[in-house]
């Protein structure tokens, strides 16, 4: 009996495809057995490392087994097919209304919102709404709509740079400094004018995890309006903090309790707890989402209003978000976030106690913290070298420069997410101590060629 070279009877690693090299830049001519194709892809994935040990990313890497089952049940649902999947569409609406309630919208029924593929798309939509409302107001007053600008911290996530680039908006960055380590409304009058479409406030700076004081920024804009008449709105980029602050610091006023906050975005796949990718954006009132940005199309037999940059996208993550809202509730989320903060504070205390380091932040806001080398500690190694050494243990702990006026400072950062237990945290501290001890014994400087940030904001 003659068998094909890639036959189920042939041991998997001796089959064509495993035992031979396939060109990476040509479309394959012949099929493989599913077991062979699976093994090839699985082995490629294996080289990525362990996602649970990636302390660079904010994106969730763990969910419970019930969520995994729901994910498998719903992987084929297209979020945009709202006529075909009406219950998924209704669940999407339920989720953003729950967020409107969590963020103290004056009326949940009067709010507006949508899911997105992630918090970056949510920021894009929030920015588009700000720009379009500014354009409408300028045209109604008979004024030019040229040269719009958006004011934000120099520590914003790169999605805001993309927004300004893609939609022809001037980005005006307020630099972070030693005196003002976060954007707090200082000197804001120097940056805003009649062409300012809005101000972005970050609830959880990606560099350090610190919250920008939204209430202080709002007060600064109130003072500007009193002297200039400029009524400028705020978009809160709560990619991480909007799913942490309500549970750990409910007294902190940063959300729709401030009338100047027109919209808030967050990432469901960060501290919302869902696998990638889902984000959310909610407007305080429907009037802040211009109607001409909402498309109403006939699709698969139904009328469908949509405001999104993506059309077809997974519905599974929306269902997973609903699952977590039901599974945890307010008290459950508070328990989870307190646990993450406990781990973050434990790690920051341990690292801050090590002689080479001083903390830049300690996990008091987000369960995220950063540290830097003590000035003058050594010339033989730096944080990039420590990051490389930790990779040998499987840990991804990024080192990178701070933005703009503080770009001469290099920091290292840990993001604590679900799945990083206190036991694992102790293992990480032991590995850091081991590598610091190794580096401190060097008799001459480590080479600096090839070192640099491997993580970008």
UniProtKB/TrEMBL annotation:
Gene3D superfamilies registered for this protein in UniProt: 3.90.1150.160, 4.10.280.50, Type I PLP-dependent aspartate aminotransferase-like (Major domain)
Cofactors named for this entry: pyridoxal 5'-phosphate
Enzyme superclass (EC): lyase
Key words, A-Z: Decarboxylase, Lyase, Pyridoxal phosphate
Gene Ontology cellular component list: cytosol
GO terms for MF: aromatic-L-amino-acid decarboxylase activity; glutamate decarboxylase activity; pyridoxal phosphate binding
A single BP term in Gene Ontology: L-glutamate catabolic process
EC numbers, comma separated: 4.1.1.15
One Pfam family this sequence matches: Pyridoxal_deC
Record PTM N6-(pyridoxal phosphate)lysine, positions in chain: 270
Reaction(s) catalysed (UniProt annotation): L-glutamate + H(+) = 4-aminobutanoate + CO2
Region (Disordered): 1-31
Bias-annotated ranges (Basic and acidic residues): 15-29
Family: Belongs to the group II decarboxylase family.
Protein name: Glutamate decarboxylase
Lineage: Bacteria, Bacillati, Actinomycetota, Actinomycetes, Micrococcales
């Amino acid at each position: 009996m003659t068998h094909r070279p890639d036959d189920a009877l042939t041991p998997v690693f001796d089959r064509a495809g495993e035992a031979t090299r396939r060109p990476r830049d040509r479309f394959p001519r012949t099929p493989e057995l599913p077991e062979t194709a699976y093994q090839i892809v699985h082995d490629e994935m294996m080289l990525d490392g362990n996602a649970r040990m990636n302390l660079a990313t904010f994106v969730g890497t763990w969910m419970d087994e019930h969520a995994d089952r729901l994910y498998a049940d719903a992987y084929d649902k297209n979020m945009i097919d709202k006529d075909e999947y009406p219950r998924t569409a209704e669940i999407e609406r339920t989720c953003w209304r729950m967020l409107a309630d969590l963020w103290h919208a004056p009326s949940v029924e009067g709010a507006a919102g949508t899911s997105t593929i992630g918090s970056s798309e949510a920021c894009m939509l929030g920015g588009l709404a700000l720009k379009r409302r500014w354009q409408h107001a300028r045209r109604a007053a008979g004024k030019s709509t040229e040269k719009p600008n958006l004011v934000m911290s120099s520590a914003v996530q790169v999605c805001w740079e993309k927004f300004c680039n893609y939609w022809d908006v001037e980005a005006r960055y307020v630099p972070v400094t030693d005196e003002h380590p976060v954007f707090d409304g200082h000197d804001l009058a120097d940056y805003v004018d009649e062409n300012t479409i809005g101000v972005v406030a970050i609830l959880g700076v990606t560099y350090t995890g610190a919250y920008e004081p939204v209430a202080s920024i709002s007060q600064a804009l109130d003072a500007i309006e009193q002297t200039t008449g400029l009524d400028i709105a705020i978009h809160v980029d709560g990619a991480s903090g909007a799913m942490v602050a309500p549970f750990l610091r409910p007294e902190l006023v940063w959300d729709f309790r401030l009338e100047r906050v027109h919209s808030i975005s967050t990432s469901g796949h960060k501290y919302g707890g869902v696998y990638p990718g889902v984000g959310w954006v909610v407007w305080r009132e429907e009037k802040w989402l211009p109607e001409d940005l909402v498309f109403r199309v006939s699709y698969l037999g139904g009328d469908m209003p949509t405001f999104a940059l993506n059309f077809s996208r997974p519905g599974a993550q929306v269902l997973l978000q609903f699952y977590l809202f039901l599974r945890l509730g307010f008290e459950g989320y508070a328990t989870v976030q307190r646990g993450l903060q406990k781990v973050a504070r434990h790690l920051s205390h341990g690292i801050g106690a090590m002689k080479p380091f001083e903390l830049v932040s300690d996990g008091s806001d987000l369960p995220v913290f950063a540290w830097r080398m003590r000035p003058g500690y050594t010339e033989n190694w730096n944080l990039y070298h420590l990051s490389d050494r930790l990779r040998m243990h499987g840990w991804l702990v990024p080192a990178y420069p701070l933005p703009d006026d503080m770009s001469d400072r290099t920091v290292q950062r840990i993001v604590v997410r679900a799945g990083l237990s206190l036991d694992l945290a102790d293992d990480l501290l032991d590995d850091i101590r081991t590598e610091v001890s190794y580096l401190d014994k060097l008799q001459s400087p480590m080479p600096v060629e090839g070192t640099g940030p491997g993580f970008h904001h």
